[in-house]
Amino acid sequence: MKLDNQVVLIAGGNGALGQTVVPAFIQSGAQVFIADRHAHDNPSTIQVDVTNETDVRRAVKEVASKTGHIDVLINLVGGFAAGRVVETEIAVWQRMLTMNLTAAFLLSKAVLPPMLERRIGRIVHVAARAAVDPFPGAAAYIVSKSGLATLIRTMALEIAGTGVTVNGVLPTTIDTPANRKSMPEADISQWVRPDSIAQLLVFLASPNAAQLNGSLIPIG
């Protein structure tokens, strides 16, 4: 897939999954900017708290001021916490909702108006298979990812026919160093390879995916 001259903002691009996703988009020909909560010397990294609406709007305007527009938003931001409902502290509940749902809402809300004005754009969020196939023992995480899946479907209905699309990717366990460390006895052959997710994200950002809107695509 080629994304020549496309401006792509990747939220969470410096994380474990981002280390594979960002190079895939660069190789596709896209001009990539990374939204990250930490400052970096790299001029393509925009420091931003994706859970703060004012900061998100500022970051989106900063990218647009450099490029004229944003063609694609890829959202990799998220977190995991274990615990059944009766075991979950309110702080954990709120943290999962903030990381997995509120950040996606704020990022989408910030990039949508200029995309709708230009009548072209792609928004892709990474959710989780558990959003549609829940399991016991991670209540706050699953509810927040389910909320993200519903947000995707709702936005898709709202923007249908505008030339802008929003879709979601639903991976099972991703093969990252952190997951290997936390689950040393697991069969990693069943886990999703980051490069598989990266290629799917590139496809969903491409013109070839123009007819996909509101899709929640399982992988793994």
What does it look like?
The structure is a single chain. It is built from six helices and seven strands. α2 runs parallel beside α3. Helices cover 42% and strands 16% of the residues. β5, α4 and β6 form a beta-alpha-beta unit.
Brief write-up:
With 220 residues, the protein is of the alpha/beta class. It is 42% helix and 16% strand.
Termini separation (Å)? Answer: 21 Å
Low-confidence stretches: none
The run of helices and strands is EHEEHEHEHEHHE
Percent of residues in β-strands: 15-25%
The Rg value, from CA coordinates, equals: 17 Å
Q: Which class in CATH terms?
A: Alpha Beta
Helix content: 40-55%
Mean pLDDT: 96
Query: CATH superfamily membership, which one?
Result: NAD(P)-binding Rossmann-like Domain
- How many individual domains? 1
Biggest β-sheet description: 7 strands, parallel
The computed structural class is alpha/beta
- Total DSSP E strands: 7
Which strand order does the major sheet show?
A: 3-2-1-4-5-6-7
User: Number of DSSP helices?
Assistant: 6
Could you say what the CATH topology is called? Answer: Rossmann fold
What spatial form do the alpha-carbon principal axes imply?
globular
Second rung of CATH, namely the architecture:
3-Layer(aba) Sandwich
List keywords for this structure.
alpha/beta; Rossmann fold; globular; 220 residues
Layout: helices, strands, pairs:
Layout: E1 7-11, H1 18-27, E2 31-36, E3 45-47, H2 53-67, E4 72-75, H3 90-118, E5 121-126, H4 139-159, E6 164-171, H5 177-182, H6 194-205, E7 216-219
Parallel strand pairs: 1-2, 1-4, 2-3, 4-5, 5-6, 6-7
